[in-house]
Amino acid sequence: MTAPALPASWRLPFELAWEALRAGSRPIGAVLHDGAGRPVATGRNRSQESTAPPGQLAGTAIAHAEINALAQLPAGGRYENHRLYTTLEPCLLCSGALIHSHVGHVLYAAPDPYWTGIENVPGVGGQIAARWARREGPAAAPLAAFSALLMNLWAMRHTPAGLGNQGDDSSASLARHCLTVDGILDAPSVETVYRLAFPHLHRRGPEGKSLVSPPLP
């Protein structure tokens, strides 16, 4: 099964996520597009690193991809027509940063099971509801599964006790299987990783059950 190219709007977020994984940080990447669809800011998780570009965070639990991208926006601007692409659903911290940055739209590749129910936060009303960024996601199944795979590959190296928290047991099983694929952890680019992993994103378990969960409705 031949892998298609990553969609253009998702290529850079996933490249940043892979760069983060290779640096030891959580594999999450984010790219902000302006109203014309042009990338204007990028960021990736740097929580396990000691350095970052000027104006970005590293070596702290809040060095999230979305924070590092949004921190590059000049204060006082209005960015309701901007769209943030991120490989993992924004957490509460990053959702708050979207509110304060006046960014109106976020697209995420995979849901984050740690933050199930975060879509209910605007129910508190007030400015939170008025300025809550419109959410679009998860992405189509191969991209959602690929994002979860990257998170589980990171977990297998750094937090094996928590493996499987990024999705269900089938996602963890897929990550274990992909570790046996020659070259996947040493791949120089995320396109190579996607090409190597793609055939396995559709493999099935012993009972015929897909090892990739479909995207949420």
What does this structure look like?
With 217 residues, the chain is an alpha/beta fold. The protein has 2 domains: 8-139, Cytidine Deaminase, domain 2; 142-202, no CATH class. Helix content is 34%, strand content 15%. It contains 7 helices and 5 strands, in the order H-E-E-H-E-H-E-H-E-H-H-H. Strands 2-1-3-4-5 form a 5-stranded mixed beta sheet. It is globular. The two termini are 26 Å apart. Residues 204-217 have low confidence and may be disordered.
* The top level CATH class name of the largest domain: Alpha Beta
Low-pLDDT runs: 204-217
Count of distinct structural domains: 2
Overall 3D shape: globular
Query: For the CA atoms, what is the radius of gyration?
Result: 17 Å
Please outline the major beta sheet.
5 strands, mixed
Helical fraction equals 25-40%
Helical stretch count? 7
CATH architecture of the largest domain: 3-Layer(aba) Sandwich
Provide the succession of SSEs. Answer: HEEHEHEHEHHH
What is the mean pLDDT? 88
For the secondary structure, the number of strands is 5
Question: What would the keywords be for this entry?
Answer:
7 helices, 5-stranded mixed sheet, Cytidine Deaminase, domain 2, 217 residues, 2 domains, alpha/beta, 34% helix, 5 strands
Brief overview, please?
By secondary structure, this protein is an alpha/beta fold.
List the helices and strands and how they pair.
Layout: H1 8-22, E1 29-33, E2 39-44, H2 65-70, E3 79-88, H3 92-101, E4 103-110, H4 126-131, E5 134-136, H5 141-158, H6 169-178, H7 190-197
Parallel strand pairs: 3-4, 4-5
Antiparallel strand pairs: 1-2, 1-3
Helix pairs in contact: 5-6
